Amino acid sequence: MSKNCLVCGGSFQESRIKGLVQCKDCGFLTTNLELTEEEIKQLYSANYYHGEEYADYLSDKEIIQHNFRKRIKRIGKFVPDRNRLHLFEIGCAYGFFLEAAKAFFCDTEGIDISEDAVKYARETLGQNAHDGDFAAFYSGKKYDIVCMWDTIEHLEKPEVYVEKACGLLNTGGYICITTGDAGSLNARMRGRKWRQIHPPTHLHYFSRKTLSLLLQKKGFEVVDISYPANTISVNTILYTLLCIKSSHEKMYRFFKRLGITKMNININFHDFMFVIAKKK
After folding, report:
1. What CA–CA distances, in Å, run from 223 to 17, 73, 276?
2. What residue ranges do the domains of the chain occupy?
3. What is the DSSP string of 172-195?
4. Which CATH class is domain 37-279?
5. pLDDT of residue 35
6. Which of 42, 185, 202, 272 is most buried as measured by Cβ atoms within 10 A of its Cβ?
7. Highest mean pLDDT among 44-48, 158-162, 237-241
């Protein structure tokens, strides 16, 4: 059984979802896995973005940046004078957000453990991206905004990252996080079949309550929680369902020949949250 809950310090018990444990006190859900630094790094090799988790991450750049621009617009409702602010992204991958954010912020910088992704961000997109683990990162600089887009669920020790992010922020700075909401109606109804549950890449499953508790514990005040719709390619949906979740590659190739995979759709199951919190 895992150690004490990283959110409230409570003890864990077996969850109704096989393979997960749940805090008896706050309800935080997590896997009962312990991965080495090298094992985690291996999970996010080039294959992760090209076949293992995504059909082809690079081909979805336009859609991904469309969703990022919506997040930037949301941030603007709570954070004044964005063009004067310095932004840091944890888990910047191929640099799509950094590139999109450059037009709205004074300075953008990021980090990721995927060497292949960071190389693309730096050499192809010209972004200020670092290859490495944020927990060991030091720049000597202060920032006004730290972002973690679909990242916190992947981290072995998310509480360490949130605490370090707080230390890097100027007083009154903001942390912006997106992740699945394990307390949402869809997540509870789907149980083990909820699309967000797939260890070992997703290690932790926050709810609105438990993520707010963690942020408050680490020096933040939550100012906004929203449930944005996301645009996604039909290709990504079918690839996930037919090639990753099951073994129906022939059916996937059939739909691809029909041209169906070229379409994009807007979806919102209200189980994906966008949290903005301010450093106290």
Report:
1. 31, 15, 6
2. 1-32, 37-279
3. EEEEEEEEE-TTSHHHHHHGGG-T
4. alpha beta
5. 86
6. 272
7. 158-162
